[in-house]
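Everyone, carefully examine this protein record:
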Amino acid sequence: MFEAGAQPRPTVVILTALPVEYEAVRAHLIDVETLVHPSGTRAERGRLAGTPWYVAIAEIGEGTLTAAALTERFHNWLDPQALLFVGVAGGLKDDIEVGDVVVATKVYGVHGGKQTTQGFLVRPQAWPASHRLEQAARHALRGKAHFKPIAVGDVVLADSASAIARHLNEHYNDAVAIEMEGAGVMQAAHLTGTLGALIIRGISDNADAHKHERDAAGNQSVAAHEAAHAAVALLRELTAPPTKSAELLLAYLRKAGLVADRHPAPGLARWPVPTFSKVYLPQRNVGFASRPANPVLDTCADQGEPATKRITNGALLHPSTVLNGGNCLVLAGPGGGKSSLLQAVLLEGLRAPEAAAPVPVLLPARALANNHPLPLAIACHVETDLGRLCELYPSTAADPDPNTVVLFASRPRPEAHWLLLIDALDEIIDPVQRGVVLDRLRALTEDDAPVHQFVVTSRPLPSWEWERLGDRVDRRELQPFDRTDLRSFAVDWFESRNVPSPEARAEDLLALTEQSNYAAMVRVPLMATILCHLCQVRLENNGTAPAPGEGHPSAVGVTQRPGSRGDLYQWFTDLLYTQQVAAGLHERVQTALRDCGGGLTEHAILQAQRRIGEMAVRQVSKGAGPQAGREEPCPPWVPLPLWEAVLRDIMLGTGLVTEQAGQLVFLHHTLAEYLAVRHLASDPPALARTVGAVLKTGRLQSVRLRLANWQSYDRPEGDSYTGFLLDCAAQGDVDRAAHLRRITALAGVGGCAFVIRQHLLGTHVEPDVVKDAADVLAKGAMDARAMGWSRVGAIELLIRCGDERGAEALAEVAKAPLRLLIPRHRESSELTFGAGAADYWHDLKQYEYLLTDLSRIVYDPDLPGTARVHAAIAMEAVERKHVRDGSGLEALRALSLGAPDPRDRKMAKWALGNARRGRR
């Protein structure tokens, strides 16, 4: 459908006849590539820096016939917006000196005529210059060139007294120069009907007997360079006319801009919500990113060559940083702000005025899980999601516009690239399909002049999957809101909704959340959004809940405090149903089905709810896409299109799903997980089987639990889905507590970490189970024989649970951080720094992961200050020994200046001084 060599670009063709002319023009171009026509004609194409123009140059030889034929060929081949012939000529007037530049306002073909007995009767042919090109040249070359007619003939004039010289003087007296190709160029351009052409010549001689002497003196080179400079000045002045791709790019920017600032809050589509930009709040991040161009690493310079990546310093991850930061992987837990970040980057890119700023395109990862070429896959999603970009270039409904495919196959602007914002890789459940996407993205990192770069988001997946992206991709982990962030988020939300006293309402919300585990649960953007909306509804109803609608007798009142994350989601979805009823759901359905008989309203509503549940189960469990098939038949007396339209309206009205690229999709994957579990709860045996599969019940699984490692429970379902299952199981016949006690007893540190993660996520876990799991983690945190990432992970979980044993274990780690173990490898082909006994090698990437784990503790302002300093001390020692990127010093410096407790600042300053002395 498209070829790289045929991508439309604002192109000017410059033809030359001689090598010296060709080289004079080529010297002004960058990024030059060779083009070969099927017939063998060759050209080189490059960019003229500082302009939108691509310039294709060719050396065609002398003569009007060749010039005419190749002008037509280049017009059909490269579809240029203009064509110039640039070269040397002989001067015909005394006031035209060698080295002057002549821009031809008119081109004469001097050989036309009729020979009679009375003599030679001239039949002149003349072609005017393109008005557009001539005007641009006059503006660019005012006072630097002559704008006069020139003569063209297939003759080299080297005698000013010859018959041809007298012929020119008598019949073409206003011509100031003579050359051999311009007439062919102008005639061929004229016959195209659209191609503008201009002849630019540098005067190398006076068309007299001294021509050869002047050529030998190098005048041709001087004249060729003057003509080339004039052509470049013209192109810098010339405005590129809109191409199809330029028109489509403007259409894309306009259409994307219309939807980019819509708030993605789930369930609020039918009610007024703030625009996204009013409530978006950047989050802190940790991870490792490409080093800045001139990093300042204090005294690290004498430690050897530093790593090409550096650990990030926990700063806010602003959209502009991501927009201009190159290829990047962004990780966060459920509802952790990944999609919001991409939407903020989209807004930033659409508003960026710089010509070199990347142009963002937002698309789900599933859009790339196919065998289509990348530009075709992008075009398919964009046109399905936003509609045809331009109706002037129609195509069949089944395929995207070929011009749109070409738009995404080439740079959007000469100095800019496309930035693909790829959301929700983890929602592709099948690892094979995820691998297809990751391999496709890996290929983009290997292009030194990329047309596409990417930012891909996901929940945490096994590390071996991320290795497929290679080493040229930054990795960032979004961190939850701290208390200050959550307060700012709530104030912005309430202000945008015109809630009275937004600061006081935000403090009320914080007070509501700071009960047991509730505070940790709501410090991710999705949960904060839901809670703000629920609190607003409570205020609007004077602290009482609206009456639940029919079919939802179990709706939770808004004045109650949910005991778990599952309760909060039930609260929210039931409230949405109540709001839908208040918005006239029954009346809409009755009106649509009034001609089909009575008794259909409740049937349609219940079937739509079941279909949402089936969609959720399919999305969570299979990865075949969220669009579930119609499980229940349409009533035979109701037209199928009408029935489907009614169900679709009900489903969209719930606020839980939206339409994207022609399909109904959930507004957030976490909502799909909750609704899938809620749907499973209608079939208790199926729920029990699912819980058993996730929690590894059965005798054989008990053996496996004893062998479990840290990642035993990082299954595709993930912690979020498992948490909803556990909350739902508590309401049924499944003995959840017994299963969790069994995991705590048999699964070691990995299983206990799973239990604590569920506790922190907001899942209801019995206090005695939490205590038993914390006891096991405390032992693992103090075990010097355990892997370093296992110890640090256990420490972090304990600290976040408020267990003092986590801080005590971290203090022990800070005393001997170099004893933290990582996996050792015999193979050294991909390993960088060596350490340890014999021929074992330590993998640099393992240390980067370890530093990232420590940095999560260092840069979380809600954690105890002393624990943060101890983590920074350990981080500095490991970084100095193995990674050498200065991140350890940066962590200590940040705490020495910003730790709230003066004692913590003093300890950090003391550690910073020791670290600096140790690097000398």
User: Anything to note?
Assistant: The chain has 36 helices and 23 strands.
